[in-house]
């Protein structure tokens, strides 16, 4: 016993903790510490919770008392409610011990506040809380207010008839509520420390008694003392021999006796008399140190280790260990085979999941399986899967498409990719689909009837002797089949291979289903985007336009373009970009494109339109903030340009990244200095517009940055390519320009989707424009009407004279009655006849239906009846009322 106890006394500087008593003492000490700490924390937490609850009650009681106090409604209805209430609110705050008493009106304006500078400002807080306060609801809630984390209660103030006048909001700081609890902490901690000291002393006394009874021994020493001997002799599955210095057998365990086939009386005998193999006898009688030296013993292979037992000059004996390694060779072969299979499955998991394309997923399985698992492999998918749909049972007649094939010679393939295979109910493929389990089949002439028609003979001729077919199932749905064949130079498939094929099928089915879902979602998003982008460009005469859109490599993006005809022989050109990819981005793009069209209908300048769009994006983002899964769209870019074909003037404004390049008819290329305003949704800065004077046949190139930027290209490099491409071919029309830019500028691997819009300007000839300045006198209407009629006849528009004279008469009369000088009229002969009357007033005209007894009020009503379209646009100097009538049925 003393021999085993010595090492424990040499272990570290705290041998006491190695003993059973020491470990029990440490455990008791930790348990006491945890219990005392938990008790103190629980008391503090409970006190804080009650204090917070008391703060809710106190703030609500003060709010209700002050709100219902006599004269409250009268004071809030008076002319100077702040003067009448401020002193009373402060007195109530100090008497009740709360941190704030705030009275506010129905608009949320503070009438009283402990901090005087905040009086007259709106109350702040969470949107829902402020909305409830202004609706006259009684609330009590904790949130972070201007005074810090507080409990705030609000009570409405109403008149006797129930009219809501405002409310009283009372706040109590959580910090001040907890100060009372914090003052008690020293007493609680002191009590806990005293309890800990008393409990520790009792545990120490108990530990001292236990230590005396166990003599300071540790658990490992006691176990070794009482069980070591029996374990070595009877339980260790390794042979142990202990030899004396004169090579006599001192000790032998059961395993060594069995391995060496020793007699029952072997102990005490010399090694040479034990009847062992000569090489074993020679080894045991030597004094060599041996490590894992293999020696045959009968039909066994023994691994031998031998070391000396000599200590401190004592006679040197030896200890020998023996291990049977006969099964190691078999296990080694199996381990290699298992390792190969695990590596196969590991590689399959990595490679099959590396793509989200159906054909690619099937091909990855074939690449993994051939030739490591099979000589030939084929993956066949059902028709609905290829369309991105989920197949529904029954699956018969089974007729999948071969999506991927591998292993057959290219010059004489057994199977062809893309062909449809019809399986009869007797084939293993049909059985696998019916049962949902893998099927193993040996291919021989007697089982040829179980193979698909026409394949049995070809397979047998190529030496195929076995196959495994396994359904690709995920969530109980069959997506297709995977079939593996082996030929004559390899061992046939067995039951172990069934498990491997099943694992491959499971991993493939998951990836096929992911690819199917991706295909479906990508198809849906692409279809949505196609419907949201313009199907074609509208007919108009202001510009000749062409556009291109290229989706992003990773999915559907948010770029768009638009050509929007405007009255007065003008057109709006738009290119925009919503950051991101996917369904949400495509849907947002559609919403913003529609918004641009709606704002364009109001005929506002480009900078004003971008301001409206900025407000819209901000509002949409606020809606998404209320949704935990919402995606923000702040950062959207948009370039908006209006070209006037009468004056040749183009006004441009932009937000964010979309760019503009101008190619002049003489071949020179410029990048107009359009101020770059922040992307939509950021706010805080006004948008600036610039005016450009464009001769006829100028080309405007509007683009998103996907045209310029790539994985290895900067924006500046892309712009240089655009300049060279436009300058090299100045005579290309817009469609040819789009094709040229895509061929010469587009990066090999674009980083984003691309929207490109090219417009070649046109100018309306002076012969198609007629203008008159009109005296601000009703007597001028008749001569002007006659002058317009003469111009229409000169244009050969005899059929439009009557209608146009009526429209002109009504518009000028309306301007004389409700407008202001100067008065001007303009006729434009384009695709339609446009009549414009401008005046110096910005008052908007309103069409109304006059009563039968009214003498007037029918002017704009008649204009709306006879004109195809009419409307109003505002200028820096007034407004323009315009009306369009078709010409020659166009």
TrEMBL record:
Protein's UniProt keywords contain Plastid: no
Claim: Cell wall biogenesis/degradation is one of the keywords in the record: no
Topology within the bilayer: Multi-pass membrane protein
Domain annotation PPM-type phosphatase: ranges: 540-761
Source superkingdom: Bacteria
Record CDD domains: HATPase_RsbW-like
Main location as per UniProt: membrane
Record's subcellular location: Cell membrane
Listed Pfam families: GAF_2 (PF13185), HATPase_c_2 (PF13581), sCache_3_2 (PF17203), SpoIIE (PF07228)
PANTHER family: STAGE II SPORULATION PROTEIN E (PTHR43156:SF2), STAGE II SPORULATION PROTEIN E-RELATED (PTHR43156)
Name of the protein in its database record: SpoIIE family protein phosphatase/ATP-binding protein
Protein's organism: Streptomyces javensis
Lineage, uppermost ranks: Bacteria, Bacillati, Actinomycetota, Actinomycetes, Kitasatosporales
């Amino acid at each position: 016993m003393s021999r085993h106890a010595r090492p424990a006394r040499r272990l570290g500087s705290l041998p006491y903790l190695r003993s059973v008593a020491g470990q029990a003492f440490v455990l008791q000490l930790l348990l006491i510490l945890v219990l005392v700490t938990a008790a103190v924390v629980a008391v503090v937490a409970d006190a804080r919770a009650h204090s917070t609850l008391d703060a809710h009650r106190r703030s609500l009681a003060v709010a209700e008392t002050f709100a219902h106090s006599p004269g409250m409604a009268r004071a809030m209805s008076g002319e100077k409610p702040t003067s009448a209430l401020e002193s009373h609110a402060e007195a109530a705050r100090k008497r009740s011990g709360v941190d704030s008493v705030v009275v506010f009106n129905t608009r949320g304006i503070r009438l009283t506040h402990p901090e005087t500078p905040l009086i007259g400002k709106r109350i702040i807080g969470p949107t829902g809380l402020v909305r409830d306060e202004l609706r006259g609801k009684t609330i009590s809630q904790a949130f972070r207010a201007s005074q810090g984390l507080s409990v705030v209660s609000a009570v409405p103030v109403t008149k006797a008839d129930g009219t809501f006048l405002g409310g009283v909001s009372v706040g109590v700081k959580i910090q001040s509520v907890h100060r009372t609890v914090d003052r008690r902490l020293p007493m609680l901690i002191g009590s806990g420390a005293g309890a800990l000291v008393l409990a520790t002393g009792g545990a120490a006394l108990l530990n001292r008694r236990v230590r005396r009874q166990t003599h300071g021994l540790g658990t490992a020493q006691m176990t070794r003392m009482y069980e070591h001997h029996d374990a070595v002799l009877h339980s260790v599955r390794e042979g142990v021999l202990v030899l004396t210095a004169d090579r006599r057998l001192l000790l032998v365990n059961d395993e060594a006796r069995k391995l060496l086939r020793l007699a029952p009386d072997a102990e005490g005998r010399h090694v040479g008399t034990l009847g062992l193999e000569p090489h074993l006898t020679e080894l045991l009688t030597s004094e060599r140190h041996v490590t894992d030296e293999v020696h045959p013993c009968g039909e066994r292979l023994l691994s031998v280790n031998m070391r000396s037992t000599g200590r401190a000059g004592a006679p040197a004996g030896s200890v020998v260990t023996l291990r049977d390694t006969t099964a190691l060779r078999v296990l080694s072969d199996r381990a290699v085979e298992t390792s190969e299979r695990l590596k196969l499955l590991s590689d399959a998991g990595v490679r099959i999941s590396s793509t989200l394309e159906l054909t690619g997923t099937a091909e990855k399985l074939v690449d993994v399986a051939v030739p490591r698992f099979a000589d030939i492999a084929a993956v066949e998918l059902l028709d609905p899967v290829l369309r991105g749909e989920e197949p529904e049972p029954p699956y018969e007649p089974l007729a999948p498409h071969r999506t991927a094939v591998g292993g057959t010679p290219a010059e004489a393939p057994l199977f062809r990719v893309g062909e449809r295979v019809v399986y009869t109910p007797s084939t293993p493929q049909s059985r696998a689909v019916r049962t949902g389990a893998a099927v193993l089949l040996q291919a021989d002439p007697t089982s040829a009837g179980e193979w698909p028609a026409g394949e049995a003979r070809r397979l047998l001729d190529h030496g195929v002797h076995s196959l495994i077919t396994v359904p690709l199932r995920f969530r109980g749905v069959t997506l297709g089949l995977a079939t593996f064949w082996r030929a004559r130079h390899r061992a046939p498939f067995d039951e172990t291979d069934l498990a491997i094929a099943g694992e491959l099928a499971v991993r493939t089915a998951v990836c096929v289903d992911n690819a199917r879902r991706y295909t479906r979602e990508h198809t849906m998003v692409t279809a949505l985007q196609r419907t949201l982008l313009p199907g074609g460009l509208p007919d108009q005469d202001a510009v000749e336009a062409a556009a291109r859109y290229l989706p992003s490599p990773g999915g559907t993006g948010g770029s768009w373009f638009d050509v929007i005809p405007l009255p007065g022989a003008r057109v709006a050109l738009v290119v925009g970009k919503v950051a991101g990819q996917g369904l949400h981005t495509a849907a947002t793009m559609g919403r913003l494109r529609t918004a641009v069209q709606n704002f364009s209908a109001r005929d506002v300048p480009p900078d004003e339109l971008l301001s409206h769009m900025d407000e819209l994006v901000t509002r949409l983002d606020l809606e998404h903030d209320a949704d935990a899964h919402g995606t923000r769209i702040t950062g959207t870019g948009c370039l908006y340009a209006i070209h006037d074909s009468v004056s040749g003037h183009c006004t441009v404004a932009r937000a964010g990244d979309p760019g503009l390049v101008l190619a002049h008819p003489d071949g020179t290329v410029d990048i107009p200095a359009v101020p770059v305003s922040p992307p939509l949704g950021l706010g805080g800065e006004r948008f600036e517009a610039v005016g450009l004077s464009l001769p006829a046949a100028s080309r405007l190139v509007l683009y998103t940055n996907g045209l310029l930027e790539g994985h290895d290209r900067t924006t500046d490099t892309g712009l240089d390519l655009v300049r060279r491409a436009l300058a090299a071919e100045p005579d290309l029309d817009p469609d040819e320009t789009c094709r040229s830019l895509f061929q010469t500028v587009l990066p090999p691997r674009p980083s984003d989707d691309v929207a490109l819009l090219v417009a070649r300007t046109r100018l309306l000839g002076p012969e198609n424009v007629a203008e008159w300045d009109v005296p601000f006198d009703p007597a001028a209407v008749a001569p002007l009407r006659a002058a317009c009629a003469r111009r229409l006849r000169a244009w050969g528009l005899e059929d439009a004279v009557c209608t146009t004279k009526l429209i002109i008469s009504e518009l000028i009369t309306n301007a004389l009655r409700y407008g202001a000088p100067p008065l001007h009229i303009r006729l434009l002969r384009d695709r339609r006849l446009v009549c414009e009357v401008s005046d110096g007033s910005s008052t908007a005209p309103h069409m109304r239906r006059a009563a039968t007894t009214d003498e007037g009020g029918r002017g704009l009503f008649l204009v709306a009846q006879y004109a195809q379209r009419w409307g109003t646009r505002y200028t820096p100097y007034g407004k323009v009322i315009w009306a369009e009538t078709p010409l020659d049925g166009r």
